[in-house]
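pasting for the record
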Amino acid sequence: MIHALDQIAPYPKTVAEATGEAMAAHYAAKAALWGHIALHHDDPDMRGRAHREMGDAYRLAYLFYEIAGNAGDRLAAELWQTLNDGEEMAADLEAWLAEYAVPADQIAEIAKQVCEPNPLAGTRAGMGGAA
C-alpha cells in the first residue's frame, strides 16, 4: 500500500524531476501517511515505527520546503520546535499537501488499508508484517 503513495506524490525519477517542490511534496505525503498509520494501527510496535517514520519524512519535507530562503540556524531551531509540537507538524503537513495538490483523503485511505487486518496472510495489508 505504501507504494500507492507514489501514484499521488511520486518520488522524482530523474535529476530533472528532483526539485525542492517535488521532494517536499513526496516527503510531506509520506509523513502524513505514516502519521495516519501511527494514529490508527492497533499494533503498538507498528505505531512506534510509524511515529519514527513520520518524523524522518517530516524532517525531509520541512527542509525541502524551507531551505531556499532561510538561514541554517533559524531552520534548525524551527524544525526542532515543530518536531516537539505535533499540532504544528499536522498543520504544516495539511497545508503542504494542499499546496502541492496531494490528496490528503487518499493518504488517509491508504493508511486505513494498511491498518486493516489481512486475514489471508495474518499480517497488516501492505506492510508485509515486518517492522
